[in-house]
Amino acid sequence: MISLKQMKYFVEIVDAGSYSRAAERLYVAQSALSRHIKELENELQAVLLERDARHFELTEAGRLFHQRSKRLLQELAETVQQTQHVSKGEQGTIRLLHSSSVTLTAAIGAALHRLLDDFPGVTLEVAKAASDHQVSDIEEGRADLGLVRLPVLRRHANIELREVFSERLVVAVPRRHRLAEQAAGDIAGLRGERFVSLPHPERGGLSYLVAGLCQAQGFFPTAARATSRKTSLLNLIEAGFGIAIVPDSMREVAPAGVRFLDLPPQQAGSIVGLLRRRDTAPIVAKFATAFEQALRQLPGASAPPGAHPTEEAR
């Protein structure tokens, strides 16, 4: 019967390129390695290595056995690791929601990729949901984590909302708009423009924030003839229905016919938060903590003013 030890020794010899280096790596005598390989060849009834006094060459059978053995040993190691994660409660699917205004940029995608490498027992299920809907979904167990654009209006005592980073807002306009050639603008100068996104009376998020910024400049956004609170608002802008104030990260997903104007930092800032249950499962809590740290370190991200966990999701 072929043993795992024989397979491991054979793979190590081939990878090391010599019996002596393999013996050093494995902390075994070279004579013991030679004996195990001879016993392996006897079991297989095949020559794996053609040897002389100083070198060896893989036979065709040896190449096949090396390739398959290495794959089996890797799969076994992964199985052992995953079994340990399951035993410690460190494996499962984490359901992550994000609002349409919190774009899963390339930087966030890369951060999630690194996190999944650090949590090999975890898989992610990602979906979009309005910020206030995320609170209910997480509270009622339909989701585990949520990325939201503040403010969040709904309140649940068991939901923790942590402010993770702030992002500047910009004006998105059609390429033929009168402002399209400008590099920067001012919210007050948008009075009378048609906005393709208006706030829902019972929801927070980006459109609620934008309405507040406009009101601070003395006007309420005028509705365009077609509106949306989703990323499809960018398509409405390209089609010439109106304008919108959006997070700078939306540049990554904007169609070619949309132009962007910077706004003064003191006028237009926005905060992204991470939602989770206070009594969430240990693996979700660990993942959430690591995700929060990764989000704070994103290129170009800045800490929100007075960042701290809020008392409850709002």
From TrEMBL:
GO molecular function, one term: DNA-binding transcription factor activity
Family annotation (Pfam families): HTH_1, LysR_substrate
InterPro entries: LysR_HTH_N, LysR_subst-bd, WH-like_DNA-bd_sf, WH_DNA-bd_sf
Record keywords: Coiled coil, DNA-binding, Transcription, Transcription regulation
One GO cellular component term: protein-DNA complex
Coiled coil: 23-50
Domain HTH lysR-type: 2-59
Signal sequence range: none
PANTHER family per record: LYSR FAMILY TRANSCRIPTIONAL REGULATOR, TRANSCRIPTIONAL DUAL REGULATOR HCAR-RELATED
Family statement: Belongs to the LysR transcriptional regulatory family.
Protein name: DNA-binding transcriptional regulator, LysR family
Organism per entry: Rugamonas rubra
